[in-house]
Design a protein that fits this description.
globular, 4-stranded antiparallel β-sheet, about 35% helix, about 20% strand
Amino acid sequence: MTERYLSAVLEEAEQIATHHEQVAHSTENAAHEYLRYAVLKLLEEGPSNPDSTLPRIDDVTVGYGQDTAMFESWHTDVEWWMTVPPQEECTRFRIFYPTEHESVPRLIVDVMSALGAWRVWTGNAVDCGSYDHHERREVHFLWPQGHPVEDLLQERVHGPDAVAPDGGCTGDVRDRMVASANGGQVDDLEPRTRRAVTEEMSVSLLEKGGRYEVQSASGNRYEVDVVGESCTCPDWQQRSPAGGCKHLRRVDHEIKRGRVPRPDGRLPADAADSG
C-alpha cells in the first residue's frame, strides 16, 4: 500500500523537477524542495496523472516551512511545540482539512507515511495572519532533510549514477545564483535591490497567502510576508526601510522571475521562459 503513495509523490515531484525546475532555483537541496511542493500539489489538487487511481479529498490546504524558523516566528502564539520541540533540518507540514472528518483523512496519513514523515500534532486550525482557517482542523508532520526518498527522486530525474555538484544536493545555491542567470539585467536594478539579488540566499514558499521563508548566507532564517510587506529580520523590525529589507526585495524578485511559487501557491504559467 505504501508503495502506491510513494510512487505518486515521486511521480509528482519528477514532473515538477522536469517542467518547473525554477521552484528550487535558490534552495540548497532541490530534491527536498521538489518533494515537499509535490505533497502540496498532490493533496490540494490531486495527481497530475489522469490515469492515477489515488483518491482525492476536497478542501485540503497544505503549508510547510523549516521547523525551527516556524518556531522562531510563532512559538509565542501557538502551543505546537509543547510535545515535540523544534527540530533542526526538518520541514514541518501544516495540513488543513474539513471538520467533517472525525479523524485525519486516510489519504493524508498514507501520503505522509510514504514520504517518511511522522505526525507530531493534531488540533483545531488557528488563523496565523495569512488567511482564515476557522472551523477547520489541521495536522502537523515532520520530515527530515536528507531522507532516502530524496535519493529516489534524484535517480528518477538524473539516473542512478547522477552526482550533484555539491556532492549530494541537486541544487547548490552557489552554482545557481540569480545574478548569473540574469546576466546584465542585475546591473540595471536599484543598488539595494541589486545587493539583495546577488547575495547568497535561498527562498521557498512557507504558506499560501504570501508567506515565504528566506535563509541567508549566515544560516539565519526569516519569514517574509509579501502581501503584508513585513519581515522578521532585525532590519525590518527596527527600521522598516523604504522599499523593504533585502529579504523582502529578494522574495519579490524571485516571484517575478518565476523561481518560487506565487503567493497563491501556484506556479507561474510562463515560468519556463523566465530564464
